[in-house]
Task: inverse folding
């Protein structure tokens, strides 16, 4: 099961930007020698990376920074979306209806994950329930990033005051992670 390099790169870039050289060095020291080498060699946006590698990166972030910023997952998730939907694509999004865009999100999602599937469980004008299925037991930070990414996505499509929570998680033995969103 793999994740697209562009997502991993946004996560690593967030750490560099938010915690500067000193924080980034600290983060590198908690990774294994092999993982550190991959991160230092630069993450390639168009390559695929193993989901277990991604989770080890998140574990490192968890160890170093989660105590400093409990909202870290949400911020990282928003950065992934902002980085991913830059420029012309974003202008294009602005011209479409929010509902249409949201119905397209599972297709968009499949460009970034090859073994997980995003499902829209319920959708109305100002609320959304999404599920993620796949044979992967995610960490808390993994799912927090997911919450942030979808908040970012809804904001880009014109939603304000987005409220979100994960209402069920595969980490607790649920068959899928379920996320609930409302906005104005
Ligand atoms: Zn979950």
Result:
């Amino acid at each position: 099961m793999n994740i697209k390099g562009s997502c991993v790169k946004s996560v690593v870039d967030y750490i560099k930007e938010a915690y500067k050289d000193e924080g980034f060095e600290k983060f590198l020291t908690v990774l294994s020698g092999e993982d550190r080498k991959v991160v230092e060699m630069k993450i390639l946006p168009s390559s695929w990376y193993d989901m277990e590698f991604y989770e080890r990166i998140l574990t490192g972030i968890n160890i170093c920074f989660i105590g400093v910023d409990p909202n870290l997952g949400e911020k990282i998730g928003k950065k992934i979306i902002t980085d991913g939907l830059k420029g012309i694509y974003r202008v294009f999004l602005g011209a479409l209806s929010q509902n249409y865009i949201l119905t397209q999100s599972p297709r968009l999602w499949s460009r970034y994950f090859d073994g997980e599937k995003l499902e829209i469980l319920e959708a109305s004008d100002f609320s959304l329930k999404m599920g993620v299925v796949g044979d992967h037991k995610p960490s808390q930070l993994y799912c927090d990033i997911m919450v942030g990414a979808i908040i970012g996505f809804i904001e880009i499509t014109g939603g304000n005051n987005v409220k979100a929570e994960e209402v069920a998680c595969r980490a607790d033995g649920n068959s899928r992670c379920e996320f609930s969103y409302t906005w104005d």
